[in-house]
């Protein structure tokens, strides 16, 4: 087994640069006879409760922002429907206004590997949305 590990915390780059990295990886995989598994983590809102508010709001099990929670649920519905083109049009604002971890470059890289806005497969939600320390969490399979 060969492993290519790419860590992302690209707060000074734009999503197109992250997309291009994974488009290149996709070309490499397609040119080989190897299988690929991509694991991306951290793609919903990442607004953690402030320490001073954590206990009062049972922070481990609640969302720190109703706006962010609603956006996360909307994103999850877009993914379930396979409406990735719409999601990608809002990715920059979603990352900015919903405190995307690492500016959601992991998500841009995932979509680069999948074909960006030409990817249209419905996703399988393995774990329904849940809050954790104020953030939004889920586990989703993006089929190829």
Describe the structure.
It comes from Ruegeria marina. Residues 2-142 form the Extradiol ring-cleavage dioxygenase class III enzyme subunit B domain. One of its GO terms (molecular function) is ferrous iron binding. The chain has 144 residues and is of the alpha+beta class. It has one domain: LigB-like (Protocatechuate 4,5-dioxygenase, Chain B, 3-Layer(aba) Sandwich). Helix content is 42%, strand content 11%. It has five helices and two strands; from the N terminus they run αααααββ. The protein has helices spanning 15-31, 51-54, 66-81, 84-97, 105-114; strands at 124-132, 135-141. It has a two-stranded antiparallel ribbon. A hairpin with a 2-residue loop joins β1 and β2 (135-141). α1 (15-31) packs parallel to α5 (105-114) and α3 packs antiparallel against α4. It is globular and about 55 Å long. The model has no long low-confidence stretch (mean pLDDT 89).
Blueprint of the fold:
Elements: H1 15-31, H2 51-54, H3 66-81, H4 84-97, H5 105-114, E1 124-132, E2 135-141
GO molecular function, one term: oxidoreductase activity, acting on single donors with incorporation of molecular oxygen, incorporation of two atoms of oxygen
InterPro entries: Xdiol_dOase_suB (IPR004183)
Organism: Ruegeria marina
Brief write-up:
The chain is of the alpha+beta class and 144 residues long.
Name the descriptors.
144 residues, alpha+beta, Protocatechuate 4,5-dioxygenase, Chain B, two-stranded antiparallel sheet
Tally the beta strands. 2
Question: Please, what is the CATH homologous superfamily?
Answer: LigB-like
Structural class: alpha+beta
How is the largest sheet built, in terms of strand order? 1-2
Largest sheet: 2 strands, antiparallel
Strand content: 5-15%
CATH class: Alpha Beta
What is the number of helical segments per DSSP (H or I, 4+ residues)? 5
Number of domains: 1
- What percentage of residues falls in helices of 4 or more residues? 40-55%
* H-E string: HHHHHEE
Unreliable stretches covering 5 or more consecutive residues: none
Q: Tell me the CATH architecture.
A: 3-Layer(aba) Sandwich
Mean pLDDT: 89
């Amino acid at each position: 087994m060969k492993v290519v590990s790419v860590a992302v915390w690209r707060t000074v780059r734009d999503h197109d640069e992250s997309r291009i990295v994974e488009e290149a990886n996709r070309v490499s995989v397609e040119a080989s006879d190897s299988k690929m598994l991509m694991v991306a983590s951290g793609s919903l809102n990442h607004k953690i409760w402030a320490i001073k508010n954590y206990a009062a709001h049972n922070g481990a099990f609640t969302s720190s922002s109703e706006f962010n929670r609603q956006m996360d649920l909307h994103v999850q519905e877009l993914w379930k429907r396979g409406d990735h083109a719409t999601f990608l049009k809002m990715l920059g604002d979603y990352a900015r206004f919903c405190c995307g971890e690492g500016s959601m470059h992991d998500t841009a890289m995932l979509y680069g590997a999948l074909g960006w806005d030409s990817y249209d497969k419905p996703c399988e939600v393995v774990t329904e949305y849940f809050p954790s320390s104020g953030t939004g969490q889920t586990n989703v399979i993006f089929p190829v």
